[in-house]
Amino acid sequence: MKNILFTLRKLKKNKASNSLGIAALVVGLVCVMYIFLWIADEVRHDRFHANLDRIFVVHAYLEGGPEKITFGGCPPAVSTAIEAEIPEVEKTCRYIPAYSEMLVTSGSKRFMEGVAFADYSLFDIFSFPFIHGGSNSGDAENQVILTESAAQRYFGKSNPVGEILQLNNKLDLMVSGVIQDIPSHSTIDFDMVIPLEHLRMYYSNDNYLSTWYNNSFRTFGLLNRPEAFEAVASSVTNRIQQEMPESTNFLRAYLFKDGYLYERNHIRNIRIFGIIAILVLVSAILNFINLATAKSSKQAKETGLRKTIGASRWNVVRIIYSEVAIIGALAFVLALLLAIVGLPLFNNTIGKHIDLSTLFAWIPISILVGVYVLTVFLAGSYPAFFLSSFSPIQTLSSNYQTTKGRGIFRNSMVVMMFAVSIVLLSSTLIIGKQTEYMQQMELGFEKDQLLYVKLQGKLGKHAETLREELKRSSGVLSGSVVSNLPNSIGNNGEGWSWEGKDPMFKPLVTNWRTDEHMLETFGATMAEGDYLREQRQGIVINKTFARMIGWDSFVGRTLSGYGTEYPILGVMNDMHFNELSESVEPMAISLGESWSQNYLVLKVATTDVKETIDNIIVACEKIEPAFPVDYAFLDDEYNRQLKSEIVLGKLVGIFSVFTVIVLCLGLLGLVLFLTEQKIKEIGIRKCLGESVPSIVGRFVKPFLISGCLAGLVASPITWMVMNRWLEGYAFRTQITVWVFLVSGLIAVSIAVITVLWQSWRAATRNPVEALRYE
């Protein structure tokens, strides 16, 4: 307690500079804590399963086309085969995620729910604890398992086992179990799950669950021991070829625990933010050390006095480190309190729900303790070990100086602080530029003002009637019925051939069903020939497919698709569909049939949009009153694809602001202390006639030089890191010189303004006051 009070009294001597130095460290630590929270939240995905080390995933990849194509799932027959044939596999499960919502009804209550299809061995492999019932009671095909929240929407808090729910006004299902709500960190998510067997009826195909093609089924397995994974992974690769020797569809296994971080490449952003955390922390610590070093001349005389009255070098080191440790502890406590207070705002900004308890897990606590120890050790190292090595005569003599050494050391740290700021600022600009590029990139069609309606229930059968009725509305310019939205066309296959095709070349071609109005509605354009017409049977291919085929002209020629000959009516300019980060794939477009009428896409006017939407809802409810109208703007769907890039940009921007604040506080504290140290020198220079601008320039010049040097260091580092990040995008912006110039200019300008303000105050003081100093 005595040491704490003594340290606090010492802080009052240079209250302003000390406060700024501690504030800079606090801001840096708050930033690092938020990064820890975000990283810990990302790493937590799927870690709650008891069998985590024994769960594996099997997926397929195609090698018949110009490049390898990876799928999230594999054929349905794979699951039963590997469970029967590989001794190390204890259980398997096939799973179709809740891609879209379905209408679920109980009496007068009806809601749209995310309904997944799965083998009920899902609950033996994964840890989804049951509150009521289980997965093996009654007729398996007529079961439904609910999450707790879904059950409460229909039955309150009572036990609903045995109750009946109706799915899409067609299928009656009995509740066999209720599980706890699925954690937000789960990549497997649903409101309800029904047996996979219902897919046979859904697609009117008795063989739907036994084929060796169709890579729609996510397949999970449970090993009898963790060490068996390598044996399983090597066994599954060519399993499809045992049934279909000509297939170019191969299998690969990976551990489920690696899925979110490594298979989906979220580890990329974790590494980026790990580097940012280190940079921000280094900047904050350097600032703290810098200020400690700047004050070392006063501390040197204090050390000399202590040694004169008998203190040993070890006692001096202990006293110095105790002071630094107390100041560091104060900074850490303040940072923790600020992190707690600001967490709701941080969560709201990035769209997450991070719990503060994440920070108190043993790994983050261990890291923070390590950071604290490192900060204290580095901040106290110069005065504790270097200054304490001098004899009392050296430190107390009037000609004692370590100015040159301290200046080089201090300027080096200022350069590093500038470099960290420039790296983060330029990274923010590049990420923002890439996000803007993807938002504004040419898609091959006009996505603005495209509104889609999901054709549920009777709407699918009466799609053309609905389109004609809405077309009479002044707010609807045109409409087209399509099988899939252009951002999620998942229907594809290898079944296309043509004259001169290499038999071993088997590209994956996307099959899209539309109508004759698609071109007008979407604003797409033709490169050759005509688009589909109701009276003409044939196909239209996109330019990518045309380039792959390699002919000079296409109209009038034919393609063979899945055993049927199709005349080519025309070649359409590429529309960018599926993921924006991927290149355009080959596509074949044909007229839709009744089973493929899934969406009505409408081009709506920019005026009276609310009235137009109201008219759409009324028209849909007139045809199908049982289903709520499911509509949205296509532009919003594409923006959802960019969510990770938008969040990444926000995070880097937030941390850039933190870093600039650390830089400003650090420089302000340093300049404040230096002006106090040089107050007599400033007074003498003014008495000798030196102008205020000249005196201010003496303070600004070193920081200006440091900023320029930092820009030279930071630019190649940023270019290397961000260029590697951009490699993950098929369509990407260019990293230009202006990004680094603007970043450097921002950092240097903010720093110069900070230094100017304080140095101007010092230079304009009355020289009489300066010469009376002390």
Automatic annotation (TrEMBL):
Residues 275-392, 654-767 form the ABC3 transporter permease C-terminal domain. The keyword Chloroplast does not apply. It comes from the Bacteria. The lineage of its organism: Bacteria, Pseudomonadati, Bacteroidota, Bacteroidia, Marinilabiliales. The keyword Transcription regulation does not apply. It is a multi-pass membrane protein. Signal peptide: none annotated. Pfam families: FtsX, MacB_PCD. GO terms for cellular component: plasma membrane. InterPro entries: ABC3_permease_C, MacB_PCD, Macrolide_Exporter_MacB. It comes from Sunxiuqinia elliptica. Keywords: Cell membrane, Membrane, Transmembrane, Transmembrane helix. It is found in: Cell membrane. The chain crosses the membrane at residues 20-40, 272-294, 315-341, 361-387, 408-431, 651-674, 695-715, 735-757. This is FtsX-like permease family protein. GO terms for molecular function: transmembrane transporter activity. Residues 22-237 form the MacB-like periplasmic core domain.
